[in-house]
Design brief:
Blueprint (H helix, E strand, L loop, with lengths): L2 H18 L13 E2 H14 L5 H13 L17 H10 L8 H16 L4 H12 L3 H13 L7 H6 L16 H4 L8 H14 L6 H18 L11 H12 L7 H13 L6 E2 L5 H13 L10 H13 L28 H13 L7 H18 L23 H14 L5 H21 L22 H12 L10 H14 L17 H13 L7 H18 L12 E2 L5 E2 L3 H18 L4
Antiparallel strand pairs: 1-2, 3-4
Helix pairs in contact: 1-24, 2-3, 2-4, 2-12, 4-5, 4-7, 6-7, 7-10, 10-11, 10-12, 12-13, 14-16, 14-24, 16-17, 16-18, 17-19, 18-19, 18-20, 20-21, 20-22, 22-23, 22-24, 23-24
Length: 609
């Protein structure tokens, strides 16, 4: 079989699988990995509310943890993740709730892993190790230590144990939301429910001196109301099991088992459990998965079909319906954005809004009301422009929240917004077009300033567990390169240099097998190989040595075909971050990125296909 034939066969098979992943309504829901961290926190939360009533899901969850403990005694966030201190501490704590067959052995193995990592099981040493992992960001360090305290893993004396849980100023939640960025909260913007619930729990267990005690007691009434107001109708904050579980266990352990938030959260937790007893990190990434799939299918060569119109219409109508048309209660985000999910717990964010704009551009809107499309696009692009930080970069949820890593500008988000602005630039009103041109210039300034000395960019939302810093320059560099494809020197004087340095980095870090990992000397994965291949292909006309680039592209295509068994198998890799080094993998990632990359490779290697 010739290379071109093999490539076409692989593309056909991969596209068929991607199309088969659509749900009955015609779009993509994806499938998030099961999470040991989510399972442990859900078990603890249910136990805090009523250990007898919820004995069955608790025991099934704990048994799942026992069955999926890593050989070294620890747990990672997914079943194929390396053990880490956060998840291992939570699982070790959860196993202290009740006795199951083999729980003693699992507990001993976990304790041994923790001793090796921390140096001992001393509560002070454990608290220090957790704080070191997260630094100034208390978004996960405080909830983890709270769970350890609740489960008796920080000593037998509750007073002493809760002293290890740093206080959170839940009273700040009573201030207007427009003040939150200026208040420099010790948790990231999306963690407001944890700030309130865990801050209150710490206040109940460790009473401060007057007059702070009176201030906090007075503030609780209003903060409790805020906690209810931002809880979605599903009961799950952000549709996320860990966040919802932390809020639930915090309130339940503080005498608030009957709090309306707890009563709404419990059905969400029970409904989120999977048949095997585990919990995923989040309900779904349906909007994100669907926009990725649309972009991948749209990368087909001109001679290949995109999607029949009758298949595009339900996707288009569904995607339009996901746009937020009112101010969001959670983050105070104005209308115009999209979230990652079609469920009520979603929050508008930069990545999904950019993805939706690119998907709308790819879909056929000729049978839609042009005014409606124009209004939707204009609102979304305005939303993204208004989100841009002073440094020119794009943050995730809220402008101006720069104190903690997951609220700062990032190259991957900025690149995605840049792509969205660029494709719609000539189809938006003149006044907005002028604003977007300025936003593009500022974004390119930001990307120039954040490009690493080696030519790469480091993203926010994706990592690689094989790298010491757990970052993923392959993902970041590929995302930025894709955004630079249609731009030229007129947009920024440094653009050519930025592009050439990034392309050189990608080619330098291609593995001998033709694929890519997250960076230098990391195992090739389907996801990272596809992203890098895609970036090389769409920038092929800018590459200074096209002969060498063609060889790199062919080697990468061969590698990707081998990794996917010629488009038949797509095993996922844990490269996603779901907040603060909380790993996940998504079933659709290797599939969509392979479809896109191999179709782009066809345009270079088989231009007549």
């Amino acid at each position: 079989m010739s290379f071109s034939t093999k490539l076409q066969t692989t593309v056909n098979s991969a596209r068929e699988q991607l199309l088969a992943e659509r749900n009955a309504s015609g779009w993509w829901q994806g499938e998030l990995s099961t999470s040991a961290l989510s399972t442990a926190t859900a078990c603890i939360a249910l136990h805090c509310v009523d250990p007898d009533l919820y004995r069955s899901p608790i025991e099934r969850g704990l048994q799942w943890l026992i069955d999926h403990q890593n050989q070294d005694g620890g747990w990672g966030d997914t079943t194929i993740s390396f053990s880490n201190i956060s998840t291992t501490l939570l699982c070790w704590s959860a196993l202290n709730l009740t006795q199951l067959p083999a729980s003693d052995q699992a507990t001993q193995k976990a304790a041994s892993w923790i001793k090796t990592y921390v140096g001992s099981l001393n509560p002070n040493a454990i608290a220090t190790a957790v704080d070191l992992r997260y630094g100034k960001d208390r978004t996960f360090s405080v909830p983890i230590l709270m769970a350890c305290a609740i489960c008796g893993r920080l000593g037998d004396d509750p007073q002493t144990a809760w002293q290890k849980v740093l206080p959170l100023p839940f009273e700040l939640a009573t201030f207007p939301k427009t003040w939150f960025a200026a208040l420099q909260l010790p948790v990231v913007s999306y963690a407001l429910p944890a700030l309130i619930a865990i801050g209150y729990a710490r206040f109940i267990h460790i009473r401060p001196w007057l007059p702070l005690r009176l201030i906090k007691q007075w503030a609780w009434t209003k903060a409790s109301q805020v906690l209810q107001e931002i809880q979605p109708s599903s009961g799950g904050y952000l549709e996320a099991t860990p966040l919802t579980s932390f809020v639930t266990m915090a309130l339940a352990s503080s005498g608030q088992k009957n709090h309306p938030v707890v009563q709404a959260a419990i059905p969400f937790l029970l409904a989120s459990a999977r048949p095997d007893g585990s919990w995923p990190i989040d309900s779904n990434l349906a909007t994100w998965a669907s926009t990725l799939a649309i972009k991948a299918l749209a990368a087909a060569p001109p001679t290949q079909p995109f999607l029949p119109l009758e298949d595009q219409r339900p996707i288009l109508h569904w995607l339009q319906a996901q746009q937020y048309l009112s101010t969001h209660a959670y983050t105070n985000a104005p209308p115009g954005g999209w979230a990652w999910t079609d469920l009520p717990g979603g929050v508008p964010d930069a990545d999904d809004t950019a993805g939706a704009l690119l998907a709308l551009h790819a879909l056929d809107t000729s049978n839609c009301d042009p005014d409606q499309i124009q209004t939707s696009v204009t609102a979304a692009i305005t939303w993204l422009v208004n989100l841009q930080n002073r440094d020119g970069g794009i943050p995730t949820f809220c402008r101006g929240w720069g104190a903690l890593p997951f609220d700062r500008s990032s190259p991957d988000l900025t690149a995605h917004a840049l792509r969205a602005w660029t494709v719609w630039l000539h189809r938006i009103p003149p006044a907005l077009r002028a604003r977007v041109r300025l936003a593009i210039e500022h974004a390119l300034d930001y990307l120039k300033n954040t490009q690493q000395t080696d030519g790469s960019w480091v993203p926010l939302w994706f990592g690689n567990q094989h790298l010491e810093q757990e970052n993923n320059p392959t993902y970041g560099t590929a995302m930025v390169l894709q955004s630079l494809t249609s731009l030229d020197h007129s947009h920024h004087p440094a653009l050519s240099d930025m592009r050439q340095r990034a392309l050189a980095w990608l080619q330098k870090n291609q593995n001998p097998d033709g694929g890519w990992g997250g960076g230098s000397d990391t195992p090739s994965s389907i996801e990272e190989s596809a992203l890098a291949l895609d970036a090389l292909c769409v920038n092929f006309k800018h590459i200074e040595n096209p002969t060498q680039a063609r060889k790199s592209i062919q080697a990468a295509s061969e590698s990707l075909m081998q990794l996917t068994s010629q488009g038949k198998q797509f095993p996922a890799t844990p490269i996603g971050f779901y907040f603060a080094k909380l790993w996940y993998h998504e079933k659709i990632y290797p599939l969509v990125w392979s479809v896109s990359a191999l179709q782009q490779a066809q345009k270079i290697l088989s231009p007549t296909s």
